[in-house]
Amino acid sequence: MFGQARHVLQVWDYHHGQSTRIVVAGCPPLRGRTIREKQADLATRYDHLRALIVREPRGHRNLLGAFLTEPERPESQAGVIFVHPDGYFDACGDSTFSVAVALVESGLVPRTTDDGEQELVLDTVLGPVPVRVTLRGGRVVAATMASGPSYALGSARLETELGTVPVTLAWGGLLYAFADATALGLQLGAELAPATRERLLDVGTMLWQAARAQLRADVPGLAQGRAVDLVTLVQELDEHGRPLPAGSTAQPAGARVANFYAPRTMGRTPSGTGTAARVAALVASGRLPLGASYFHESPVGLRFTARPVRREGEAVHSEISTMSYCMGIATLVLRDDDPFPTGFLL
Q1: Of 208, 307, 321, 344, which residue has the fewest beta carbons closer than 10 angstroms?
Q2: Cβ pair 67, 23 in contact under 8 A
Q3: Residue 92: its pLDDT value, please?
Q4: What is the rounded average pLDDT of the residues 171-181?
Q5: Does residue 83 sit in helix, strand or coil?
């Protein structure tokens, strides 16, 4: 059956609104000691495999991917390289949740409890990421990620077709520019008319392209002149789920969000790194105290819950929780005569 196969990859598909395809076998060994070195080798020698798993016809524009590797550190359970249809993420909260749940559910990481919490450490390009997996009656029911150091990075202004748009910059593993959806006259939520969703895609794409072209920020201890990775439209909510007025200084209970990381590409989840970045910005502004509960709700109604747990100088550390679900186990094949060896995007 696979006689003409150039590559045969074993993958597990998980989702929590956003889908992640986890490559568990079939990728050739990657060179390098660190995850950053392995990511560079994947990008240099096997980038076609990255494109193959997440692009059409095997994937789609909103599919994320994760390549499992051996861990970088002896105390870690696995290494992970995060990918998407246009390239690589140094960090990805969405895929972190999926990988952690998959490792425990599959037995790749032996279970230490059937009722309680199991600690994992995943090695990534940005370093080790602790994840706590919760089990009840032998079933995984939640995963909680400890964010790395996250930073509020000030404010900026985007010059766009809509005029000047104020944004807040923050780092949570990726660099985010947050824009107030209410101030822009935009609605967010799971029950939107098609025309409203199209408007969101248009505005989100415009802001993302403007931010990529116009904004740079220095991330303490990590990067100088970093380009914006994602733009997030935010509609803050009070404790009753009602939108707060634009420019409110009240403590929000949470927010509806829409994340954009490529043209006309709106994330299906609230984003783990985005939630960490937003929490850091709110803590720095004095609007969210340490220990307070906060949530982000995605365009499909999925919620991530978060809690800032400590502050070290300018860095804010948070815990973010959700659940990810297995939806498929598959074998992907690339024949040597396939007309789309790297897939395609329309």
Answers
A1: 344
A2: yes
A3: 94
A4: 97
A5: strand
**Is 270 a domain residue?**
yes
Distance CA(270)–CA(127), nearest Å, equals 22
Describe the crossing of helices 47-54 and 35-45 by its angle, rounded to 10 degrees: 80
Cβ 78 vs Cβ 69: under 8 Å:
yes
pLDDT for position 4: 82
Instruction: Please answer whether residues 332 and 153 qualify as being in contact, where contact means their C-beta atoms are separated by less than 8 angstroms.
Output: no
pLDDT of 1: 61
Q: Which residue blocks in 73-174 are alpha helix, DSSP H?
A: 93-106
Residue 173 sits in the same domain as residue 246:
yes
Strands 254-262 vs 151-160: parallel, antiparallel or unpaired: unpaired
Using the predicted structure, report yes or no on whether residue 298 has a pLDDT greater than 70.
Answer: yes
| Average pLDDT estimate for 267-276 | 93
* Total number of domains constituting the chain: 2
SS3 240: coil
Tell me, what CATH number does 60's domain have? 3.10.310.10
- Give CA–CA dist 50/223, Å, rounded: 25
| Dist CA 61 CA 56 (whole Å) | 8
Q: Whole-angstrom Cα distance, residue 285 to residue 279?
A: 10
Q: Summarize the confidence of residues 28-53 as an average pLDDT.
A: 98
- 280 and 302 belong to one structural domain: yes
Structural domain containing residue 59: 5-145+326-335
pLDDT at 190: 79
Total-model pTM? 0.90
The answer to whether the CB of 317 falls within 8 A of the CB of 308 is: yes
Choose among 158, 178, 159: nearest CA to 257.
Answer: 178
Q: CB count, 10 Å around CB of 229?
A: 23
Indicate if 126 and 179 belong to the same structural domain: no
**Helix (H) or strand (E) run with residue 210 in it:** helix 194-214
Mean pLDDT, rounded, of the chain: 95
Rounded to whole angstroms, what are the CA distances from 38 to 28, 79, 96, 332, 344?
11, 10, 17, 22, 24
Q: What is the pLDDT of residues 4-40, one digit of tens each?
A: 888 999 999 999 888 999 999 999 999 999 999 999 9
Write out the H or E segment, with its range, that includes residue 285: helix 272-285
How do strand 78-84 and strand 116-124 relate by DSSP bridges? Answer: parallel
